[in-house]
Design goal:
Length: about 170
C-alpha cells in the first residue's frame, strides 16, 4: 500500500461481458458503494495506476464496474487481481463513536486494569455484532465490538482500545 492515506477497498476478481466491464469483490458496505469512490488506485506486483470509474452496479455478491479506458474483454482480463485502493479522504467522516474498521486494525487492546491483550489483527462481521480479532504472541481472542459494554474506550490518538474482558478468556 502506498501510504496510510490509502485504504484497501476491494479487488478486481474477474471480467463481465465483452465490453470491458470487470467484476469487483468489494469490502465496502453496502458492496456497491465502491463505485462512489472514484478514482481508484489499482495496485499489483509493485505496479500501480489510477483509473476512473464510469459506472457500475451490484451483481450477486460482487459488483460489476465500467472503467474509463477499458473497452474490451482483453483489457479487462489484464486487470484481474489488482487491489483497489481509495484515498481515505474520499470516505465520509464518521460520526462520534463510529469508526472505520481500518482505523481499528493495529490498535493495542488492554483491560481496564492495564493488562495488555494484544493488537487488533482484523474484524469479523457476525450479523449480531462485529468482533475484534485480537492477537498477541500466543493467543487469539475474539472480543465482541459492543461499545459501552465490552468496548469501554477507543483512543485513536493513543492507538489504544480499553475493554471489559477477562484476560484468561
Amino acid at each position: 500500500m502506498p501510504n496510510s492515506d490509502y485504504l484497501y477497498a476491494g479487488q478486481i476478481s474477474g471480467v463481465f461481458g465483452v465490453k470491458g466491464w470487470v467484476k469487483v469483490f468489494s469490502f465496502t458496505a453496502p458492496r456497491e458503494n465502491i463505485i462512489r469512490y472514484s478514482p481508484w488506485l489499482l495496485q499489483k506486483n509493485n505496479q500501480s495506476k489510477q483509473i476512473t470509474v464510469k459506472g457500475g452496479r451490484r451483481h450477486g455478491n460482487s459488483v460489476v464496474v465500467e472503467l474509463e479506458g477499458v473497452a474490451d474483454r482483453d483489457a479487462a482480463l489484464e486487470l484481474i487481481g489488482y487491489e483497489i485502493l481509495i484515498l481515505r479522504e474520499q470516505l465520509p467522516k464518521p460520526d462520534a463513536d463510529e469508526y472505520y474498521w481500518a482505523d481499528l486494525v493495529g490498535l493495542a487492546v488492554e483491560t481496564e486494569s492495564g493488562v495488555r491483550l494484544g493488537k487488533v489483527d482484523h474484524l469479523l462481521e457476525t450479523g449480531a455484532n462485529d468482533v475484534l480479532v485480537v492477537i498477541d504472541e500466543t493467543t487469539e481472542r475474539l472480543i465482541p465490538f459492543l461499545q459501552k459494554q465490552t468496548i469501554l474506550k477507543i483512543d485513536l490518538n493513543e492507538r489504544l482500545i480499553i475493554v471489559d474482558w477477562d484476560p484468561d478468556f
